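hi support,

uploading two proteins for the ticket. first:
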Amino acid sequence: MATRPRDLYAVLGVDRKASQEDIKKAYRKLARQYHPDRNPGDSAAEERFKEVGQAYDVLGDADKRRKYDRGGVGVVGGRPGGGGGPGGFDMGSVTDILSDLFGGGGGGARRGGGTGTASRPRTERGRDVEAEVSLGFEQAMSGAQVSVDVPMATTCQTCKGSGAKPGTSARSCPRCHGRGVEADSQGLFSISQPCSRCHGRGVVIDDPCPTCQGAGQNHTVKHYKVNVPAGVQDGSRVRVAGKGEPGRNGGATGDLYVVTRVSPSPVFARKGEHVEIEVPLTIPEAIRGAEVEVPTVHGRKRVRVPAGTRHGTVQRLRGEGPPRLGKTGPPARGDLHIRFVIDVPATLSREQRKAVDELERVMDGDPRADLLARAEEPRT
């Protein structure tokens, strides 16, 4: 029985209708989990890392993904004449489709040899890296420049990233002829997988670099100063382009993502793009109204309290909140939500008790009378 191709969506653990952003997130998560640096000596993790990388090579590129979806390569349960998509795949040359997706000449190399032409090693984009920084609430509101130490792999300066000892060079892999993948044709199916000789690199190194042992990279700690924009929240991710790990074989450099950890404010509570503050009122202020001074994220402001304000009433001050991170056009800031709370004293002096008794005398009526009457109404 022919071996069925592996569904690339299943490799990344995403649905076929997943967005490009969801595919990217799934790849980053799996790549970090199975990266060889985190799993030294684990051959199974290394193979999984390469498998995830190859799946993302296809699904992470919108054009390649469309070709893959039309061709149905790797879809379990395909049958002759079934058409593209989940129910089957077109009866074209599956080997040609794989060759187009993964790169390389037509009629790709088969396991154990082939006629493919030699090519340059495949370029690989550098890995994205992530670091956390701690900020105070005021810094998050106004923005800040912070120092970040980021452990990462960098290009080996001895071999300039080739992995080969200076004075020597890597040679094209004789098994995959430089493509980095092998295609094994089994009847109607063609399975592509990383080359068993070069492990997907497309080249073999006979005399490895003594500094990096053939890896082409060394581990170091980079020190950066990052400008964190005003308005970040706890958990915001600030992208710093081109400050991740360098790519291989001329590939693009990855990015640095700075995750902000913001200390809570003793006064303000963050509510998305807005902030909230509790402002106490005395009973007389709530009854007859007042003008009170309240703090904002960038100063103070006097606000009018309407007469008859109830406990928990919220008043909104437009544009008095935090800067709107990543948003263009007005308003440039969120809002400040003022929640008024009635300050009821726990103890009363003799004079205060007398005043309360007089207030009770002049305030006729039972505020619960209507409630009790409605509760006693006949129910139909």
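and the second one:
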Amino acid sequence: MRWLDYGVIVAYLVGITLFGFRFRESQKSLKDYFLGGKNAPWWAIGFSIVSAETSTLTVIGTPALSFNGNFGFLQVVLGYLLARIIISVLFLPQYFRGEMFTAYELMLRRFGPSIRKLTAGAFLGLRALAEGVRVFAISIVVSIVLGTGEFVSELVIVCLTLFYTFEGGMTAVIWTDVVQMFLYVAGAILSLFVILGQIPGGWDHAMTLAAEANKLQVFDFGFALTPEFFSKTYTFWAGFFGGCFLTTASHGTEQLMVQRLLSAKNESEARLALLSSWVVILFQFTLFLVIGILLWVYYGETNLAPPQPPDRIYPKFIWEFLPEGISGLVIAAILAAAMSNLSAALNSLASTTVMDFIKPLDRRNRTDGEYLALAKKMTVLWCGILFAIGLVARNVQSVLEAGLGIASIVYGALLGVFLLGLLTKRTGERAAMVGMSCGLAAMLYVKFGTTIAWTWYVLIGTTITFLTAIAASYGITEKEKANHV
């Protein structure tokens, strides 16, 4: 029994749970619970954005990408920067006009209650499915460490995360994100040096082998309007533009990210948090891709058979080959990424359920305290739903690409309708709903009926939603004029 490793992991789990729980005293209103009282500094929100963008899918999935391929995923990350600039210029000014709790209140202001419910409902379905895959990713790590099945593995992490999210709200989410981000980055850096120390010849030898195998390649500028071109996931064109549209959708329209931006003291601090987070994201993805390359060199040099599926390579190496105590710290770091993302998802799902569905339809004159109690109940409900989805998400091949693929199906329709609201004046609510419905239907066909790579999904869905709604606006006679933003 590796008592030191288990001790480190247990100490982390208990410590981070109690740390998040200590914020319970500040949760006195919905503003406190869903927006952290708008008191968090920009740098903490920036690190929280990074934590939400990372997740266990990144920590265990990114090394697997470079292990089997190269650095091509960085083309997607470059698109993340352009997206952040677009959000800062186009979206943030609208979100900070008045006090908003969710992204979908902007749709109410621009179009009406029906499109608000449609966009909010799309987010709930999207986040539940994507987060369910992430919950399954947690079980991969815990089952390696404890030797337990998926059920027990998921249950342990989900219950601990629920405890401090239920009590501490968004304030606990943000500050535990900060702690957990530093922990999993430190754990990754530590594991990199340990892996490097086990490779004969060190860094220079590893990079020479990687270069000879073309694994250090970042860019693929090949271009041809053929089915094969659109089936290739990591070209410059698919990566850069796909990454841009993906992040504009996730950070500009999805409550998981928008909620963090709305928690900033003002628009300027939200912009600063968003833009600065990209620097950390670029460093993180590069770090995990380098780890994947070093693991490829290690297994090649030692003639050991790497574990399958590929998502198990990094966590299994940590647990089996790193010195006792260090492996426990790095595994705790991976769990940190899992818990930070799960806590944010629970809070954003609860906030959308309460603010976009229950409160607008509630005819009772509830107090803010009653809504706060209801929000906590919704947090528990969504925790159970995510746990159930995680149990049935066992057949995915790559947890990172599965999570991004699921998100990309819905993101296009969401981004398309948001851009309609921000860039057009003619389009009304019914035309926007037609466009969004067509966008979702088209993306289901693209996902299950074609070989198009997931990096193109959001761009295609956005274009179809936007153009279909514009066309519908000329054929649908709106009874009322659209409310202009």
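thanks. also noticed: Residues 150-197 form the longest helix (48 residues).
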